[in-house]
Batch of 4 targets.
Target 1
Amino acid sequence: MIKVVVTGIGLISSLGASLENSWQKLIAGESGIKWHQPFPELEPLPLGLIGKQPTKLTILTESVVASALKDAGLVPPLPDCAVIIGSSRSHQASWESLARQMYSLEKEEEKLENWLDTLPHMNAIAAARQIGANGIVLTPMAACATGIWAIAQAAFLVQTGQCQTAIAGAVEAPITPLTIAGFQQMGALAKTGAYPFDLHREGLVLGEGAAVFVLESAELARQRQAKIYGEVLGFGLTTDAYHPNQPEPQGKSAIAAVEQCLKRSCLTSADIDYIHAHGTATQLNDSIESMVIQQLFTYKVAVSSTKGATGHTLGASGALGIAFSLQALQQKFIPPCVGLQKPEFDLDLVMTTRQRQIQRALCFSFGFGGQNAVVALGKDNG
């Protein structure tokens, strides 16, 4: 099987406009979550905004793709590069804007000539145009598991020789009135902040963000003397087939996804040094995820969630987790679970940045509809 490595990362979050800036603030224990009122019809609430107002999906995608290519030392056009960029909410902000204009009392004439650009797959198509890619384009949409799904699909394409290079990740600009109202109706939104795995956690905080990676065969990376962040060792993808928004109470499919990932990676649970947890700070997710970890890992593996720092970026959250995990492998620091004050669960939760050399990490994402995605990452040892 062809070895797959990561040679470029582009990342933008509420913490910062680059991977390095976001990482430095993360390991300093800072949070990008602040009080905002982006829509006058809705009350102020804690949000992980990149700027002062909600960002646009297209601008976010173009910026993060360009950053990833620059980081990898690649210059467009890249005709043979696969593009796998997903999103959970996609162009919802544009759809809501269109609906408001269509049904407004003023009946302003809406310009519809570019409405095709807001179809769910068109963001990835735009990225393909941006880099001059003529090969495979995929647009995974798997709720909060989207980011890891995208990396898994890209890794599979490279592993099987369908392409030597892929740009993959997820982009999310979910701060819209309907998204906020929907999560409020579910009772899932926090009132003051995000506190993953905390006894007094309140729920999730919505955040904007994007992370995109350049994946390529190790052979090609070495030929062009590219820097290597780490290796994608394997992945596990399952579905609960249980409920639209509640995880299966016994975590059976989540456990299966972890076991599948370990098996494909030729690893055991004892080989894992760090778990970047999904850690949404909701009551159900954190309790079931903790149970899954306790059941599979007989020793206390280091665990943290970075959503207390970035907010929950929905479809992009797994991609951000992969980026931070690769930084942990490289920089020998385990990022903290920002916002955690009083742990509820018997886990080795990283409350402040921990200096430690790690060889292998797992990233978890558990999305609505019971979408479970797990990826294993390892240091590149040549």
Target 2
Amino acid sequence: MTFVFDLDGTICFKGKPLSKQMVDALNLLVDKGHDIIFASARPIRDLLPILPPQMHHFPMVGGNGAFVVTEELHISTSHFDTTTGKDIIQLLKKYKAEYLVDSAWDYAYSGSEDHPIRKNLDPNQTAKNVPLEKLNEIVKVVILHSNDNEKLLHELNQLPIVTYLHGSEDIIDINPKDVSKWSGLQMIGIAPFDFIAFGNDANDIPMFKQAKRSICVGNHPELIHVSSEQVASDEQLVIQKIIEVMNDID
């Protein structure tokens, strides 16, 4: 069976790398013959540092589906078309937004140095923070703050994009239209109802709807509505749930 895991808030917490106990649980899945895919809002650049090196060859979906890695860290991207990218940039300027905008590897960041996202941004310093206009393509946008989020969101929703709101962090995630964790999984070759998904936020909804079994970590109201099971946002309880699901299969 294929297990698909979101990362932050699902199997890793407070932006820290996977714990030894969590890695042991995932290794047990592999030892039992199961496959693992990581599906995160993080771009691949920021996803790799929280995984142990031996898991860097696992298939990955990053940026809520905008980045896909199948083997040998070959990264493919789904980026905004030129017109939409320019429209987004204009709105960022109009509403004096603070942002993180990702290209395939480099990025443009305008937020504060103490923002939680900044702490998880390119920790291995393998990319460059470049001016927004110099990014060769725009793959994913995170709006950290603006002078009017409501009006900004209204105008954004007139564009061919997908938005996810993270209320606890008061940020807006933006992806190209029709891009989601589920579309990323399809690019890897995953079929509907042929995998088990663990997640904790609204950006996990598309893949939860296609999962054979879906476990909501925590109590996100929209995600619980489409999940088959729920577990509290506690690492030890999540580990127990992973083992429980594995044993149900075996």
Target 3
Amino acid sequence: MPFHTLRLPLKDSPCKIVYVCRNVKDVLVPLWHFRCAHLEKEVDMESLFESLCEGVGSFGQFWEHVLSYWRGSLENPQRVLFMRYEEMKSAPSAQVKRLAEFLGCPFTEEEAEHGSVDKIVEFCSLRNLSGMEVNNVPHFTFFRKGEVGDFKNHLTPEMENKIDMTIEEKYKGSGLKF
């Protein structure tokens, strides 16, 4: 099913979708590291950058993919929750509460007072998840830094500007901002 038709089956579907989106600049660097580790050779950052700017990603047309979930969340907010990675990093407790409410199981006052939200945030932290034995898969790099803005250490100002202009063009009029 093409990504742009995502919103059509949602109207009658009982399922709930949680879509986590990350700024494409911060997607590029871990994707590059992952591909280098997976292929066990150096991957050209410039060609990966150009592919991403053109919208070619692992799951099809990247820009339309993101917009389809964004539109779905606007058209059917009871069924599609659009979350930004940057918001999850800056306010993890608020985002865990938001997710729980969306799923129909909000935290009780007692749970909140006893630190349930903080325990979930800690359990789901990159530090904790990356240390779990189940996630220690040889030859793959599933966990890296998880930082917002690390792209500044890898992209040239020209690359950053090109992505910014592409984001502006692709998401224009949608209300989606990064």
Target 4
Amino acid sequence: MNCRVLLIRHGETVWNAAMKFQGHRDVPLSDNGIKQARALAERLNKQEISAVYSSDLGRAIQTAGEIAQSRGLKVKALPGLREINFGRWEGMTFKEIKKDYPGLLKKWWENPLGTRPPEGECMSDLVERVTGELKQITSSHVNQQVAVVCHGGPIRALVATVLGMDLNQNWRIRQDNAALNIIDFPEWEKAILVLLNDRAHLENDLLPGFRWE
């Protein structure tokens, strides 16, 4: 197979900055998110990329567009690469969810694979659709490098899957806005994680959210 996937999380949105669950809500990039996407595109400027794929949500398409534009490529939007559907939790902060759904949140945190937010998806639903999409992408691009822009949930699910991790522990994989990840696929079952959550293209932003005090 020999396909290299540049797996990228979209730039920051206003809801990201406010720590709100987005899921399937189509929230656009913030001004900072646009800057992040452009910085990432500049970093990848000299890379040979055969195709650019994206979730069909605007924040991912905007980020992918910055990468595709200079190459004259068209972004191929795939609904299967969407973030997990958080249902009624979308638009809420973690604190608000903890207040209104304490029992369900605890259950979801311990077993996201089998726990479904109200009117939403469980992680097993997410894993099935995103792995299906990525398998199709890698099989269509033998001996090529492609960019795939999506969301934190799908990226954590994919990384955990190819590494054979317990998917209920996927939250241990940090994934920041505009982060670059690289996975090599000599074969699907022998995937190699080359790079994880790299944000070297973002000035003064090595560890976002970290506080010394």
